[in-house]
Amino acid sequence: MRRRDFLTAAAGSAGAAGATALLGGCAGSADGASGPLQYLSLAWQKESIEVNKALVAAWNEHNPSARVRYVQGSWESVHDQLLTSFEGGEAPDVIHDEANDLTDFAHGGYLADLRPLLPPDLKRQISRANWDTATIEGGVYGVPFLHDPRVLVANRKLLQRSGARTPTVQRPWSWEEFEDVAKELTVRGRTYGVAWSMKEPVNQSVNLTLSTGGAVFHRERGKDVIRFDEPDSAVAELIHRQVNTDRTAARSSLGMAGSDTLPGFFAGRYAILPLNFSFRQQVRQQAPDGFEWVTLPMPAGRGAPGGGQLQGVSPQTLSVAQDTSRKKAAMAFIAFMTRPDHMARLAKGDWLVPAGTEALRDPALDTAEHGWRTGLRIASDLRASPVLGVRGYPEWKDKVATPAFQEYYAGSIGLRALRAKLVDDGNRILARYQR
Amino acid sequence: MITDRSPFARAGQYLALLCYLVFLAFPLLWLVSTAFKSPQELGSVDAEWLPRHPSLDSFAAAFEQQPLVRSALNSLVVASCAAALSVAVAVPAAYVMVRYRSVVGRAATGWILVSQMFPFVLVIIPLFLVLKSFHLVNSLSGLILVYVVWNLPFALWMLQGYVRAVPASLEEAAAIDGCGRLRTLRSVVLPLLTPGVVATVMFSFVTAWNEFFFALVLLKSPEKQTMSVILTHFIGAEGAADLGPLAAAALMATLPSLLFFALLQRRLVSGVLSGAVKG
């Protein structure tokens, strides 16, 4: 109380100094339950922002008693922004985020369990595998609506010139074939078969393990544990081999983000880029005239579940804040945004794969142009990333896994050292969160 | 032996200075170049200094996608008020701390040093709760208040040095001539503090203009967001960036600071000179 008194006095003094009086007109009114619902959107591409705003306007037109206000957020800072807002009791009512980010917020009691609120139509149009991505300890804390899976973006001319078979979703390359193709495409001193952008190596390294029957994060006796056995390490070993032994993957790209590899791709220095599906927008925008590119499915593991084509994803989600007094209205707005036709528009605007089964059939998306069809066809192979719902994952990722994977891919440490770091150090971190 | 007058030494000094300036200017020049490039040029592996086909498309896209003008106005209001209030509080406070040495003054000096050691993340949640209880969350006045408090320790520290440099004998002479305390402050001390005041204003303005984290957390309404927050809206998930519009917006965010500095730096220099003559 004394501290509060002191702060009250301090603020009072500042007020006397004229700080607040000077800009009294700038002060915001506290939007209580009577104001519009706040919708924090992380849309960032021009088309996507336009679609979001148009949908909000359409909602407001038909629902004057539950108006929604569009609030622009940013992927860069959303976690910090939300954490502070939750702690301060000022969180937006409807929250656009990523499933990966929901774990701690759900455990902290900041997000509403949507199970009693979900309308049957919405429940039906999203598959069980998709609901799993936003299910944490039995509760559903977000509506998964957009996916950004990994695909291969390839230089069509170089691929044709190499004589390699063009893979399809029905008949993808195996990882072994992919290694061979990368060798075929590599021309010493001129072209690397592949460029793995590994500035942030952890999510992709973990998510791709599903294609070889691995997971890295396993559930044992009710607890999350990290293992890095052969199925878990197969893809990482392949990347390591390509960079350090075969020299078919560019070493310089290991420190790059996806966008950084594009200039080299357009210049013919890299023949294939493993990228997120949404990067096609940048490829289309920046590709020089006459440059031909093609979107291919990721390679498949042999003998692994799902034909080896499974990959982990952490979809974009829409959640409701636990503190909001208008959960039903917030859910109704989410249901409106994720209606199949709306979901398809949002997916198109952000160059992503919709999570709804009906949206996946939308004719506007079902086109071979810019690789859209590849994304739609691999949607049934997308599974919840093994990292989802694991408490302590962000700490493991930042403190242990990111430097360990980077060192391994660069050839500074071997597989045994990588395994020791990921497993031993990692399990110590997870244990702290599961006491 | 090479002396200061040697033409080689002089040429070397200028060369070193030129290298330093190029080093400092490189990011800004690259930003300018990027802002005028087309998306195809941005995706080219052969980076060039000058855009082959200079275009304003990135500026048009930046203005179209985000409310840059409104956010710039917000930043201007916040930074100007924060700078003015910081100086209004810091000048008399620094004067008292230097001229009236007491336990309070020493404690205040200690507080200044200690306060510089707290990182943003440590104070942001308590600060948010305090501001919320005063209905100052999501308001520019709340943000101004935060910036004034955040800038004040360094502003005080900076101004103390300038106050110390003003000879006490000048004030004594003014007193002998019949000046009261306030008149002495206004007519004798303040003019000599001009460079310090200008430096403090510049520091406070630029700090508030560039600040991101407090603005991100404290301002929710889109119409109140400042320029630094709006810039992040050009960056997507996993570091994907809309590079052209981002560079164009960043360039526009840089210009007011540069302009402000250009306007005030003459006062800074003239103030130093006037102080030197009188001293």
From TrEMBL, chain A:
InterPro entries: Bact_solute-bd_prot1 (IPR050490), SBP (IPR006059), TAT_signal (IPR006311)
SUPFAM superfamilies cross-referenced by the UniProt entry: Periplasmic binding protein-like II
Residues spanning the signal sequence: none
Pfam families (alphabetical): SBP_bac_1
PANTHER family named among the record's database cross-references: ABC TRANSPORTER SUBSTRATE-BINDING PROTEIN, ARABINOSE-BINDING PROTEIN-RELATED
Name assigned to this protein: ABC transporter substrate-binding protein
